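Input/output pair, single chain:
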Amino acid sequence: MSKPSIPQGTRDFSPAVMAKRKFIFNTIESVYQLFGFMPLETPAMENLSTLTGKYGNEGDQLLFKILNNGDYLKDLNLNELDSKSLTPKIADRGLRYDLTVPLARYVVMNRNDISFPFKRYQMQPVWRADRPQKGRYREFWQCDADVLGTDSLLCEADFIRIYNTVFNQLGLKDFEIRINHRKLLEAICESCGVGNQFKTITIIIDKADKIGHDGVKKELLEIGLSDDNSNKLLSLLERLPLNPETLQNLESKLGHLENGIKAINDLKQVILLAGNASINVKLDCSLARGLDYYTGCIFEVIPTSVKMGSISGGGRYDDLTGVFGMNGISGIGISFGIDRIFDVMEELNLFPTSSNLFTDILFCPMDENAILYCMDTAHTLREHGFKVEIYPSASKLKKQLDYANDKKILWVAIAGENEIASNQISLKNMQTGEQLNCNLNDIESAIKSQ
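Output:
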């Protein structure tokens, strides 16, 4: 018999790990709600026609396809062995690659029932057939927020404030918000005389963190850029504080180009609206966000005290719904990478320490009568917000106390013959070892007093 296993790039999450993940989820969700976002969920699988062509050629290769039901090989010509002709015949669905394209599909399908601007957040898993490595999984969660139906740069400023609020509440102080503008990248390419290769160049630039400066230059030369153009392009891909001085310097270099003027004016407005929240924002002209649908400001957040890739990203997309037949809907969104955030917080020991992650009080019955004796009191405490469980059998006390220690339960309420006879309970603090007797009705006040 083979040993049980799980697919590469996926993980199980223990209760202790889930408690920490819930802390991250709940923090992000509460901040989204503070800014007026509403929850949404979409199916794990979408039609491949919905997914393909939205993420670029490389993204399309990373889509997980789902085989069609039934005898999908029946009408297949076995000579058709290349994936491009084979895939449509055996698979017409796939697991979602991100939450943004399903959002666009949802908005188009429900356009008559939506009030614009439409602000939604969505926290669900996505799947990518990538090579697993540290911080990169094949199944991982995204926590998205998007605004559709407005081109106001207030949205960009709000997302900068959301970043600051979330990471400060998580206790992650060492992070850097990086921002760029797709039209600024276009202007840089135009100024270097390679504007006609913009899409190919952005894909290469987007790999800078993986292949480094030399690797980027090597690939630029391979696609036909001259040594001079490559050097000029790379010299403009700086990372600088996002402030008026930086933008003024860029304006002197790119202000003669329409795309440059648009990008610089947008970034000036974002600084103004974000106010103090933009202090730790860097303008990263090398930030490309390789997905084809971005058209305006783009974001990434990088932890600065841990070696890790981006823990959040996003940007503006002016016509994503247009591919589904609904033109003229501007949108912008960001996504928190829950798995990478978890890894960063774990490495930095940022999760709150808690002795009772799950159960607050464990009732320890010493005989069968004691189980019944504890039932009503346990129910009352639950009504008052305590997480309570009763050990399900009258086992030896040591076994029950070991169970409490294993689950890091702070309080145990011991009930035996003597306690039942006196209508009391023996309440023990598992952290300090202190023990006291109190009436059943006084358990709550006794715990709160300590």
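The chain has a mean pLDDT of 89. The chain has two domains: 15-348, 361-449.
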